[in-house]
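Readers of this paper often ask what the protein records in our data store actually look like. Such a record has a labelled line for the sequence and another for the backbone structure tokens. Nothing more is needed to write down the fold, since each code stands for a local backbone conformation. The remainder of this section carries one protein's record, kept here as part of the documentation.
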Amino acid sequence: QWQLVESGGGLVQPGGSLRLSCEASGFNLDIYAVGWFRQAPGKEREGVSCIDTAGVSTNYADSVKGRFTISRDNAKKVYLQMNRLKPEDTAVYYCAATYRDDLFLHVSAYDYWGQGTPVTVSS
């Protein structure tokens, strides 16, 4: 069964860091570009960052540029390093995969989704 599984979410104080992981089960992730999205309560799901199949090119939402870093290390995992977290980063974070390699950071471009991992930034 093909699955994307996110992990690494939790509760962190403002200014703190978290590292999210996205792991593929049942298929090789290296043929897909991967994106991270988030959805806060009462808001639409929004793109955070994405990375191409080669792991060379990336794209970030303006709200996270300079604080978040996306990376991938093999056929199975993609990471999102989140630093200097703010309360407004609080959301459920999802990873998603797509055959598209143009770094289009929108939910409509992604075909496969994980179940999400919650991130809460609060003192």
